[in-house]
Amino acid sequence: MSFKKIIIKFIFLLILSLFLFISVFNLKNDFYPVVTESSIIGQQVTAISIKKIENQQQFQKTETIGAVNQRKPQEELNTFHIVMGVIAGLVLFLYGVTKMAEGMEALAGDRVRNILRNFTRNPLAGVMTGTIATTILDSSSVTIIIVIAMVSAGLLTFVESLGVVLGSNIGTTFGAQVVAFNIDEYAPIALFIGFLLFLLGRNEPLKQSGLIVLGIGLLFFGLGYIEDATAPFRDYPQFINWMESLGHNTLQGALVGGLFTILIQSSSATLAIVVTLASQGLISLPTGIALMLGAEVGTCADTLVATIGRERPAIRTGVFHLIFNLASASIGLLFASQLAALSLWVSSLAGVGDNVARQIANAQLIFNLLGVLLVLGFLPWIARGLERLIPD
To answer: What stretches pass through the bilayer (predicted)?
Structure first.
């Protein structure tokens, strides 16, 4: 790509980012209409100050919550603005993930392949390698697709690939942990630094590092946009009740999480959005766990597609990923309440017992760690079973 095209591309990107950034503040004014005395149903409510309107979450905890909740939904929500805001945020997030993955692949792709080739001789080493590779690439799907390609090319054996697949499930939890720290307010800094590095970098590694930082900035900027767009749902009882119902009906919640993950083709994106909504109080821990379990199954779609036209050993690797994630998610559904209790205990030990976003991120980490530990010792028998199921 020529220097002129780079300049034009990034000027367009900056203009788009500035437009979206300004739009956030305009949307906030549309989301929160002025509430007058006549719009409140209830005899106990006589006046609501502007100060209380600006702090809706605190106001909900007062004795007048029943009266406020009786307002008509169309007076509270601008559905078009919310949908457009979520779409814009999701596009920015996915674009940021794509740019970050491209930078990671260009900067460390060959090293990752060498690591996968040289450090997968036993299952435990494979798990550690898969964890590191997925953390670097920030995508379990990318890691497993690379593994499938290497198995198909004969660079990895089917048995060696199994540990890497397990490790990728652990590595993918890193993204949710980062998002749970709620650092989206620093996104403009990452955008600026990444843009300068990519534009002014004198060598390819520096340019790719800039692309990674730029992708991180776009990622968190998109999440911040989604957070602002969904803020009105805090005062919308129907949405809150629906989210709570997903927590009570974990199978339904898992189906929603799985379908959404298949739609956007990224379990990391699903978990990032779940954690973002949880940080606003829109999602409870049980609901977050249900959506997370569904995302664990939905992410297998990409890897199954990657096995089309491949050799039998590569197909076995993709099928193993599906079977493992489906089986572990099924067990997770049966013991969802125990997983929630364990996450609460771990979170309280870490001093974040009242942070639902961190609780959900910890639940994902605990779930994947336990799943890997339970299966790791049985990999030789699982491999033989799959070889019989899918013979050469």
So the answer is: 7-27, 79-98, 143-166, 178-200, 206-226, 253-277, 319-345, 365-383
